[in-house]
Amino acid sequence: MDFKNIFSAMLRKTITCRSISQITNRKISLSCAHLCSKDCDSDKKGSPLKKLLEDSASFQDVPVSKQQWVTLPYPEGTKIQRPEEDTRPKVDPRDTSIILFPGQGTQYVGMAKGLLKFPIVKDLFELANYILKYDLLKLCLQGPKDKLDETRYCQPAVLVTSLAAIERLKEERPNAIENCVATAGFSLGELTALIFAGAIEFERGLRLVQIRAEAMQLASETHKGGMVTVIYGPESKLRYACLKAKEWALDKGDSFPECKIANYLSPNCKVVAGSESALDFLERNYKEFNIRRVIRLPVSGAFHSEIMRPAMETFRKALNKTQINDPAVSVYSNVDGKKYRDAEHIRKQLPQQV
Predict the structure, then answer these.
(1) What is this structure's pTM?
(2) Which stretches make up the Malonyl-CoA:ACP transacylase (MAT) domain (predicted)?
(3) Which of 71, 90, 123, 192: disulfide with 101, CB 3.0–4.6 Å?
(4) Does 345 participate in catalysis according to the annotation?
(5) Which residue intervals of the chain bear CATH 3.30.70.250?
(6) Is 42 a catalytic residue?
């Protein structure tokens, strides 16, 4: 056995491997330096590091014809299949915005006070006063709090104040309005988003919200209920807790026993809506179901539950009589998290989020 020849071949292999390593390291260093350069933002062909990773298994830096012992990882003639280049225009997050609108429960005495110095805001409230037949601005600024917290009043208040805040945004950050690519809102805020997107005119939208708020107020007074925020972990039995709470409410004689998840806030946080006895059961017994916390919300009804069914039908009838346009900006629905396709889609799906 010729150990000298074997040792020479091993030495050549070691030197070649070092060369490959040096080439790869040099390419990675150059790519990382390029990624950190100021010119990286103007690179329209994609990340150089991504290209390096795509090419890293081709071994094109190795002269195969001169090093017969080097073999490629693929049969000769194999072409590497790469995904087609994405031709969609790249969206720079620094040049775009997404506007979100709040829902019921965000109202407070003094809201809108800091917005009155901006153009159109006073006109907006004066028009709202005319439509609603009461002084909304005075209620927002002076209260009383217990009246402002009523569903019939707080929903119009939050909607008009949210649109007033848009007037402030127009003055202070006009690009945020001009470059808005999508909008959404929490519950009531979804109607504000639709008005902002041009799907519903302000006057019609405010009348819709007034009808919605009064119908929800009536449903809340007919069947007493409320909502709680529930914080839990993987070991918790939230759905079983809701089932037992509903059974408890039935035994207690609630006029409409109900307990269900109404809002999905995060993987470990939900909002539960239910009749009064059901929520009392959860507040007293949540630890038995390994639930971490139960926090009562400052709302007057079990919104987004079957208790609101009459309000949903009232709102649906009003919506069917309202002119709706295709939104100029993408508006995402509370019901399924998808954007509304057109005006007819809004008309069919919007009532489901009551």
Answers:
(1) 0.73
(2) 100-354
(3) 192
(4) no
(5) 224-301
(6) no
